[in-house]
Structure prediction request, 669 residues.
Amino acid sequence: MNKTGAQQIKEAFLNGKAFIPFLTCGDPDLETTGKLVKAAVENGADIIELGIPFSDPTAEGPVIQGANLRALQGGVTTDEIFEFVRELRKEVTVPLVFMTYANVVFSYGAEEFISTCQEIGIDGMILPDLPFEEKEEFAPICKKYGVALISMIAPTSDKRIAMIAREAEGFLYLVSSLGVTGTRSEITTDLASIVKVVRENTDVPCAIGFGISTPEQAEKMAKIADGVIVGSAIIKRIAEYGKDSVKYVGEFVRSMKRSMKNKKSVDNFF
Amino acid sequence: MIKMTDKKGRFGVHGGQYIPETLMNAVIELEEAYNRYKEDAEFNRELQELLNEYAGRPSGLYFAKKLTRELGGAKIYLKREDLNHTGSHKINNVLGQALLAKKMGKTRLIAETGAGQHGVATATAAAFLDMECVVFMGEEDTKRQALNVYRMKLLGAEVIPVTSGTATLKDAVSEAMREWTSRIEDTHYCLGSVMGPHPFPTIVRDFQAVISREIKEQILQKEGRLPDVVIACVGGGSNAIGSFYHFIEDKEVRLIGCEAAGRGIDTFETAATINTGRLGIFHGMKSYFCQDKYGQIAPVYSISAGLDYPGIGPEHANLHDMGRAEYVPVTDEEAVESFEFLSRTEGIIPAIESAHAVAYAMKLAPTLDKDKIIVITISGRGDKDCAAIARYRGEDIYE
Prediction:
């Protein structure tokens, strides 16, 4: 029997600290997104987070809002993204997770959406507007089709951390700071304490996202957690260079992954 | 008794808490504080005093004799929320929430606003409660409602024009939610309508329910019986739920919400959610939304900045599902005609939002017998709309 999405994702963390880049599908177009995914993988990305654009991304800062807008203005749809992933899967083997908003899944028909995810090789799903209390909306269907529903923990989660961690699957997305996505010069949250509580409650890997844009930050975060998620810093390069961004994003991914590769694992990666 | 809410803040299938994890403890804290203070005698005494002494409640229930005669059918009463301090029903909710926020130790209020009425009310409460205030307003709306922008600034609030998306109410809500995510400790998000994540739809409804409580008392005193129809305009739906709430159990009272149809429900330039939308999840709640087949939220349109919203509060969505309330579309043109008609017949200039309710009453009243009673909630005053309506009629005036 095939492995579930959660198992695939977990295994991606066995190769040292995981680097997880975020790309918005269709920004600037799907052809470029495909090239970006491959470049990211070639340069050491362990899991790819693929954004399905939403008209009103309330958890995003201006940079990723811009990516959503550009993608939708380019006319990309959920169906086209499904076809894109189906093609991509012929060449890309690292775990792929969708990042989108609850309405994109709900409106498509949750069962239809999630069963298609399984069929085309999507391993997990991140929905920033689906907190623990509402996850029953999709969790049973995700379970049925072996698609990991990734949970998030925030700096404000406090007593909720243990509850969320205990039911986590795939990986845990630890939000580094208050606010929306976007690069930050400094991350001040006591993430180590949060990770400690996570560790006491689950062996699911924990990756930190929001505000990470430099190799120095990535190195620091990789010491605390099992992986690092980077969105805005990549999207900024895509916004600047458009179709020509592939080279720049590839270089950036390599520099980030290298900074995280310190002690723990394989050094003959490149 | 109709079961309206359960623990998770559901109204039938609608409602819920579809928000980022970062905000979860904030809404839980709000719910706990609300449950504590809503039973607190001192809190209720303070709020009642503010409503009476500061906001000017109770608002009148006025028998519109001329309007009734002109339309030649049912007797029409106007619930005069336009006479409240700050000029609309918004103050009812804001006084409640601001007082609650103060008790919770918050020192800063943020709010979204469409027409500017909720922003003005929030800025007002912040001024006299010594709180900081930041209002998010779609850039498009800051142009349509320049006077209200000035009022907010005069009251000491910071007004942030929102340029994302359609630069209207929807985007102002998104931006206020983003701001709340980044600053929770000292900040209360004073949401202006019966929407968003639980507990907002319940809290705002409870604070607005004063409207129907008063209508009921007043009509019983004047007519010795309940009205046959209660009509209110619906964007998110706070004045409507306030007008309906104490009549929900009185099945003989027809409840009618008037949605903004913009240029018509057969066009894309509409904001009539129940009439053109479908079930979805957005802005923290499950409800009906105007959206495309992929769930992208539609760029809605109405002449009324306050009704120009692609969703509707979850309790309304449920009243619709149960068939307990009717939701009818009213176009820009019909609303503008009613705006002018009420001004001429009764000397009352209604908010363009409220004019949507007047418009439907103008269709309905002539079809009903003279012994029937219609109550229309005039949710706000229309001074703010005069320049925009003049423009609609091809006349350019300076505010």
